[in-house]
Design brief:
- Helices cover 74% and strands 7% of the residues.
- The protein is built from 5 helices and 4 strands, in the order E-E-H-E-H-H-H-E-H.
- The strands form 2 sheets. It has a two-stranded antiparallel ribbon. A two-stranded antiparallel ribbon has the order 3-4.
- It is globular and about 45 Å long.
- It has one domain.
- Helix 1 packs across helix 2 and helix 2 packs across helix 4.
- The protein is mainly alpha-helical.
- The two termini are 14 Å apart.
């Protein structure tokens, strides 16, 4: 990270591209891990997992912020619990568009979205730490 004249943090273009790539890889691996452990999630192959990871990254960057803003009153009233449903919807939307990736059932979708988020965050931090050491 670099700091500008006002002390604000900004990214170098190469760092932004690396962050996008790490997010894609982390989401893809997280989907594979969750599909391995959870019966309600299935991935046909590693290729579909990487396609699903790319699409999930794109949906999380574009659709989810809009949904978060639109559902903010419900999220506040539910003390933040509705945010899990927004995340589950993003995962369901990914499964809808990727033929080799499927999520079966509402509860499986919610649990899978939580697990994908947790695993993706952990994997992303591990990969980011590994690339920072170079």
């Amino acid at each position: 990270m670099k700091y500008g004249p006002e002390g604000r943090e900004y990214k170098i273009p190469g760092e932004a591209a690396m962050s996008i790539l790490l997010t894609w890889i982390a989401n893809s691996l997280a989907i594979c891990i969750v599909a391995y452990f959870l019966k309600g999630v299935s991935v046909a192959s590693m290729r579909e997992a990487f396609i699903a990871g790319a699409l999930l990254s794109l949906i999380n960057a574009t659709v989810r912020p809009v949904l978060v803003i639109l559902t903010l009153p419900l999220t506040i009233v539910s003390l933040g619990l509705f945010y899990f449903l927004v995340t589950a919807f993003c995962l369901w939307l990914t499964a809808y568009f990727v033929p080799g990736f499927a999520v079966h059932g509402f509860l499986s979708t919610v649990v899978a979205s939580i697990l994908v988020s947790v695993f993706s965050t952990v994997i992303h931090r591990i990969l980011a730490t590994a690339t920072d050491r170079r």
